[in-house]
Amino acid sequence: MSASLALDALTKTFDGADHAAVDAVSFSVAPGECLAILGPSGSGKSTVLRSIAGLDVPSSGRILVDGADVAGLAPERRGMAMVFQRPLLFPHLSVLDNVAFAATVAGQSKREARADATQFLELVQLAGFGSRPVTALSGGQEQRVALARALAARPRVLLLDEPFSALDPELRSDMHALLAAIRAQVAPTVVMVTHDRDEAAIVADRVALLKRGRLLQHDVVERLYTRPVSLDVSRLMGGRIELAGVVRDGVHESAIGRVAAPAGETWADGAGVLVVRQEAVQVAAAGASAPEGFVAVDVVVAERRARGPRAELALALTDQAADAPAGSVDGPRLTAEVPASRPLAIGERATALIPRSACTVVAG
Ligand code: ADP
Ligand code: MG
């Protein structure tokens, strides 16, 4: 039932706009795969999704479903269904008839359409809710009905535009579990827009990261975190550590010293910024030496921020901190996360241990 989807240099410039809302975006999604389109507000995510659905007409480029160009196909002929942030249910219809609506309009008998809709209500774990008015539902339940209605159309591609972002965190994680269960049972190809990288990491197999209409990186989630292709990607994924320096013969040199490229990585000669995830940095006692595969850096705790069960530490390099009062040091810093129970206080000296395998170098 599910189809492959490919975008080939999709571009959309709205009338009167000075730059393209979507600028030559290409990616492909395998049948049954879930792709998250991630990016800040205004980066063109919804425009990509609406173009796929046929709700926006691209300025140029192609959209291929199972290899066939869908240009010229009306939205309802594309074999797609879309769920928006707001569920857009018909308030005068019952839950069941909302789900059965499209099939009824398409000419199926009411009895058949309702029997079919009942199955999809079960799939979204709303069995027994069919006869209720939709006005009696909670936000999370409404969104489940919207999902059931979309799935009842048996889409080859399911399009989701920030479908869970209006829900509170607990409901949102229930919906993530539900989406996983749906994927296990009916395996539609899914494209989901989100501005939340944690959500992208939870639901998606791959992520297409957009900024100002451009595709910055299309990759598995883990690589966006650990192998960003640019400083933009590193920052949009929440990376905090940036060490400006120079690469010579595969070795990066910066304020923390020399770091050789890990096996399988090639770093081009010239100026480059070493990035490494703050989650990968360990904090050991002052004077600790580096275990095999780690770079040890003498630091002093410059700031400490509570993050619930974790604490985030800003670590100034000791060389620069030696004569300055704690917290007043400019210049390169490291960031690390430790359990909140670690008693590392501001002003305390420590050793940051950076795993070489977690380091990558991007253009500045
Ligand atoms: P996102 O979903 O990532 O927040 P959008 O795709 O909605 O971003 O918008 C991308 C850009 O296109 C924004 O600059 C937005 O203002 C512009 N845009 C979106 N829809 C329209 C429209 N119908 N007319 C004009 N400009 C639009
Ligand atoms: Mg949007």
Automatic annotation (TrEMBL):
PROSITE patterns assigned to the protein according to its UniProt record, in alphabetical order: ABC_TRANSPORTER_2
Keywords: ATP-binding, Nucleotide-binding, Transport
Pfam families to which the protein is assigned, alphabetical: ABC_tran (PF00005)
Assigned EC number: 7.6.2.9
InterPro entries in UniProt: AAA+_ATPase, ABC_SmlMolc_Importer, ABC_transporter-like_ATP-bd, P-loop_NTPase
Class of this enzyme: translocase
SUPFAM superfamilies according to UniProt: P-loop containing nucleoside triphosphate hydrolases
Domain ABC transporter per the UniProt entry, residue ranges: 5-237
GO molecular function: ABC-type quaternary ammonium compound transporting activity; ATP binding; ATP hydrolysis activity
Designated name of the protein: ABC-type quaternary amine transporter
